[in-house]
Amino acid sequence: MSGPVQQEAIPWWQKYGARGVGCGGGVIALCLGVFNCITIYPLCIVAGIWQMLAAFIVISAEAPCCCMFVEFVQRYSSWVEARPHWQKAGFYVIIALPAIIMCPGLSTIFGSGCILLCGILYGLMALGKKGSRADMMVVAQTSSISGKTLVEAEQPPASA
Q1: What contacts 150, CB < 8 A, 6 or more positions away?
Q2: Membrane-spanning regions, if any (predicted)?
C-alpha cells in the first residue's frame, strides 16, 4: 500500500484491542495516578496529576460512555475517532512520557506505560499489514546496494 492505511482495512480484533487497552489502561493509570499523588516529593505529585489528566483524555476518547456526565466528551470522541491512527499514536505516546520522566517509579511506569502501550498499538495499526512473501522477495531483488541486489549481496564472495 502506498498511501495511508485505511481505517476499514484494520482487523476488528486489532481495533477493539487498542480500544480495550486504552480504556483499561486509562482506568489503571487513573488509579495509579491517585496513588502516585500520596508522596512528599513535589515532582511525583505533579507526575501523578499529569498521569490522571492523561488517563482522563484517553478514557474520554476511547470509551466516551464512561464520561457521559461531561458535555463535550461525545464531540471530542467523535473528533478523535476521525483522526488517522498515526496521530492518535503520536498523541498518546507524547502524553504518556512526561509522567514517566518526572517520577520514574513503579506506579508511573506501569500507569503511563498502559497509555504508552495504547499509543504503540495505534502506531502498529498505522503501519498497516505486512506485505506477502512474494511482494517482499520482489522488493529484496530489485533494491540495490553498491550495484548488487540484496540477494546477491547476501551471497558469499566467489573464491578465485
Answers
A1: 140, 141, 143, 144
A2: 21-43, 49-73, 85-102
pTM of the model: 0.75
Q: Which three cell numbers stand for residue 51?
A: 498521569
Beta bridge partners of 144: 149
Domain ranges of the chain: 11-154
Q: Would residue 146 be called left, alpha or beta, if left means φ above 0 and alpha means ψ between -120 and 50 degrees? A: left
pLDDT tens series, the chain, 160 aa: 444 445 567 788 888 888 899 999 999 999 999 999 998 899 999 999 999 999 999 999 988 777 777 778 888 888 888 889 999 999 999 999 999 999 998 999 999 999 999 999 999 988 877 777 787 777 777 655 555 655 565 666 666 5
Write down the residue that cell numbers 476521525 correspond to: 82
